[in-house]
Amino acid sequence: MVSITVSPAGRAISIARALPCQLDIPGKQLEDATIGDVKAAIAKKFSKFYPARQRITLKDSKNILQDELKLVDAGVVDGGELSVKDLGHQISWKTVFLVEYAGPLVIHPLLYYLPNLIWGGPVQHSMLQRFVFALVMTHFAKREFETLFVHRFSHDTMPFMNIFKNSAHYHLGSGLFLAFSVYSPQYSAMSPYIRGTSRNNPLFIWACTAVWAFAQVSNLIVHLNLRNLRPAGTRKRAIPRGYGFSLVSFPNYFFESVAWLSIAYMTGSWTAYGFFFVGTAQMYVWAAKKHAAYKKEFGSAYPKQRKAMFPFIA
Predict the structure, then answer these.
(1) Does 270 have pLDDT greater than 70?
(2) Has residue 231 got a pLDDT over 80?
(3) Residue 233 has pLDDT above 80, yes or no
(4) Which residues pair with 34 in a beta bridge?
(5) Which of 1, 29, 164, 268 has the largest CB neighbor count within 10 A?
(6) SS3 string of the chain?
(7) What whole-number distance in Å separates Cα of residue 1 and Cα of residue 171?
(8) Using omega within 30 degrees of 0 as the cis cutoff, is the peptide bond preceding 159 cis?
(9) Which pLDDT belongs to residue 307?
(10) pLDDT tens digits, residue range 85-102?
(11) What is the percentage of the chain residues whose pLDDT exceeds 70?
């Protein structure tokens, strides 16, 4: 049996006021006990302080200790001390993804099929509107499918309040605002914005759709490659290779931006362009941060010619 002293990192923790205290990890030796075992022992003593809420560090250190790390490898001795921080209420990444992608899947049909409630009369949908509706619904159905069956998350949870911020991006940007714009009478079959223009030209619409389809299929291939990098139930990291990765570290973000650019160009909607620019900027921030982490972790083994998200650029 291993005994560890656990103290709060900083202020007292309301759901674990008995900290600091000594916790026992029965059935484990120091050589095979892990940080995950410590979290389980904390949760057993303080039922509301479940493992996902806990961040474990060494005493007076800010370096986070991962669940699979063995105590002996962290430099912890029997009777040693660890610090724990309360991260607050958590929610699973999978749940957040399902909720945020579900918004557009509900919002777009409402505005597409019920124009009387929004514009006070029927809207004769143009070919452009029919295609945009199909593309948006297919995109978010794909995202839901990937969340359920493809993605393997490096972190189990995120702060609960993030669900509102994340959902607003999709429910409003690519949901309500985009749907309100492109399904309006301005884009209808009888609108002068559509009649006699390229946006009523089947060749133009099919060409934009072809670019969108290429980007979506490419995005899926990259996601499948990323899935195969991480065995189920692990947080293993490796240098990604294969389709798209020869030029950038995050081709999934690049192909996602291409798909939304094709919709923005097809419609000419400022709302669509706004969502494209905001989404692309956010993905580049993520890509640049993760790209730097890859280079730091793998050093000289990481391909030097790769950019973060945009081939040959950045």
Answers:
(1) yes
(2) no
(3) no
(4) 70
(5) 268
(6) CEEEEEEECCCCCCCCCCCCEEEEECCCCCCCCEHHHHHHHHHHHCCCCCHHHEEEEECCCCCECCCCCECCCCCCCCCCEEEEEECCCEEEHHHHHHHHHHHHHHHHHHHHHCHHHHHCCCCCCCHHHHHHHHHHHHHHHHHHHHHHHCCCCCCCEEECCHHHHHHHHHHHHHHHHHHHHHCCHHHCCCCCCCCCCHHHCHHHHHHHHHHHHHHHHHHHHHHHHHHHHCCCCCCCCCCCCCCCCCCECCHHHHHHHHHHHHHHHHHCCHHHHHHHHHHHHHHHHHHHHHHHHHHHHHHHHCCCCCECCCCCCC
(7) 50
(8) no
(9) 97
(10) 999 999 999 999 999 999
(11) 99
Q: What's the Rg (C-alpha) of the chain?
A: 25
**Cβ pair 162, 96 in contact under 8 A:** yes
Tokens matching residue 141: 């159905």
Instruction: Please state the rounded mean pLDDT for residues 227-256.
Output: 88
Please report where in the chains the tokens 């669940």 appear, as a residue: 67
Residues recorded for the chain: 314
180-212 pLDDT tens trace: 999 999 999 999 999 999 999 999 999 999 999
Question: For residue 47, what pLDDT is reported?
Answer: 93
**Nearest to residue 131, comparing CAs of 98, 108, 106, 107?**
108
